[in-house]
Amino acid sequence: MKLEVMPKQRAMEAEQREEAMEMSGLELWKHEKPASMVVFLPPPPPPPPLVPAAAAAAAAACGEEATLVPPLNFAMVDDGIFRSGFPAAANFRFLKSLNLRSIVYLCPEPYPETNAEFLAKNGIKLYQFGIEGRKLTTSELLLLQEPFVNIPDDKIREALKVVLDVRNQPLLIHCKRGKHRTGCVVGCLRKLQKWCLSSVFDEYQRFAAAKARSTDQRFMELFDISSLKHLTASHC
């Protein structure tokens, strides 16, 4: 027996199916994640231009970091002890960074006014031990002979007493080029520190280079350290 569906019933079923589909689409829309949105923000405004005073201060700060120039032949000898050639004005900022208390100056000429002003401004004490320098004459150069240089033992000894006094440190030892007079003081200090002579001479020659003098090395070899040994406890 074949059942026939009435037209009214068909219409009701169709209507119910449409409602079910609408509800299903609504539920799907509710659970569907919305697409991510990209928000484009405008770029931040540029910083305001520096006023002249601020620009000058910034330039000075950059320059202070960029111009630390050590003197010729500068090197650290030991904790709180440095050596070099004669400092120029361009080296003052570098020297200031060392927080020096003293300078041991080994030339007989008066200290230049500009350098003296720098020391006074920064509370640095000057100890001068004038040791005469000597250049080879033309005939000595032609004969490859080296002159006898009278290195004053007493001045080297007094300079070492200043160098080894911790109350004077940090300090800088310098002459004109940081080679011969400074090399002799440092070489005698190395003997106090119980360096072997070959190491003392190697260090001297590293700074003196082609201008190394056998008279300087002879002086260091013969220098009597016995009267200074009690000063070296902190450096040996």
Automatic annotation (TrEMBL):
One of its GO terms (cellular component) is nucleus. It is an enzyme of class 3 (hydrolase). Keywords: Hydrolase. GO terms for molecular function: diphosphoinositol-polyphosphate diphosphatase activity; phosphatase activity. It catalyses: 5-diphospho-1D-myo-inositol 1,2,3,4,6-pentakisphosphate + H2O = 1D-myo-inositol hexakisphosphate + phosphate + H(+); 3,5-bis(diphospho)-1D-myo-inositol 1,2,4,6-tetrakisphosphate + H2O = 3-diphospho-1D-myo-inositol 1,2,4,5,6-pentakisphosphate + phosphate + 2 H(+); 6-diphospho-1D-myo-inositol pentakisphosphate + H2O = 1D-myo-inositol hexakisphosphate + phosphate + H(+); 1,5-bis(diphospho)-1D-myo-inositol 2,3,4,6-tetrakisphosphate + H2O = 1-diphospho-1D-myo-inositol 2,3,4,5,6-pentakisphosphate + phosphate + 2 H(+). The keyword ATP-binding does not apply. Its EC number is 3.6.1.52. SUPFAM superfamilies: (Phosphotyrosine protein) phosphatases II. InterPro entries: PFA-DSPs (IPR020428), Prot-tyrosine_phosphatase-like (IPR029021), Siw14-like (IPR004861), Tyr_Pase_AS (IPR016130), TYR_PHOSPHATASE_DUAL_dom (IPR020422). Residues 73-236 form the Tyrosine-protein phosphatase domain. Gene3D superfamilies: Protein tyrosine phosphatase superfamily. Transmembrane segments: none annotated. Belongs to the protein-tyrosine phosphatase family. Atypical dual-specificity phosphatase Siw14-like subfamily. This is diphosphoinositol-polyphosphate diphosphatase. It comes from Oryza glaberrima.
